[in-house]
Amino acid sequence: MKKAILILLVVILLGGSLFIWSGVYNIAATDKHWVITNKLIEILRERSIEVRAEDIIVPDNLEDPARIAKGAPNYEAMCSSCHLAPGVKSTELYEGLYPQPPVFNNATHEAHDEKDNFWVIQNGLKLTGMPAWGGSHSDDDIWALVAFINQLDDMSAEEYLAITAGGEDHHDGTDEDSHEDDAADEDSHEDDAADEDSHHETPADEAEAHGETTTGTGT
Ligand code: HEC
């Protein structure tokens, strides 16, 4: 009996090693998981988050307009390229990512617990593209993002534009320039894009492709 178990273990180990080493598994983002794999990953993710977020204490003023207003420009700068926003129908990042980021203002999106959202924003999610923001942002900044996400559900494109472009700086803290630098980098992406004929023809086209122009000029 012991011998049979030992042989089974060796076979599993060898089989597993062969599977990994052979390269037969397709790691491409375009190769979707099986339904069962997706289900298992989902359970793993949800349990892992819940267990870790359990003891987080949620501030009782997430409805505070000042908090929401603080989260808005950060959401626009750091999150909307992946998670979209009211009036932002799609982006290249959103299209290319797998798993695809949830769209918080989509009616079908199942809202998570505030504790869970805080934990995910702080720590990120392995192998998904969801970054950890806790290293660069205070708890207060992260709660402001949680507060803002709560509001996205029934926000119009106009309201979104108004609140994110409210002229507020991204951070009250010392690292307030960091996203301005990012914005400068983004410009260089647009330049690259303009150079590469095959990509986007003009920065204006690119803006359109990114879904950033919500108020149409020609339509
Ligand atoms: C590079 C793309 C990317 C960026 C930028 C990004 N996210 Fe995510 N995020 C993801 C992906 C992908 C997932 C889904 C992972 C999954 O399905 O397991 C996710 C999941 C989440 C979740 C889990 C909630 C849910 O309903 O599943 C929250 C909350 C979240 N992101 C908030 C944010 C916030 C806030 C920002 C900006 C500070 C941000 N994300 C920036 C890609 C991104």
CATH class of the domain at 64-173: Mainly Alpha
Multimeric status of the protein: single chain
CATH topology of the domain at 64-173: Cytochrome Bc1 Complex, Chain D, domain 2
| Class based on secondary structure composition and strand pairing | mainly alpha
Say which CATH homologous superfamily of the domain at 64-173 is assigned.
Cytochrome c-like domain
Strand content: under 5%
* Residue runs with pLDDT of under 50 for 5 or more positions: 172-178, 180-187, 191-219
Report the total helices. Answer: 10
Beta strand count:
0
Work out the radius of gyration.
21 Å
Bound small molecules, which ones?
heme C
Biggest β-sheet, characterized?
A: none
Distance between the amino and carboxyl termini: 75 Å
Written as H for each helix and E for each strand, in order along the chain, the element string is HHHHHHHHHH
User: Helicity range of the residues?
Assistant: 40-55%
Chain-averaged pLDDT: 83
In the CATH hierarchy, the architecture of the domain at 64-173 is Orthogonal Bundle
Tell the overall outline: elongated
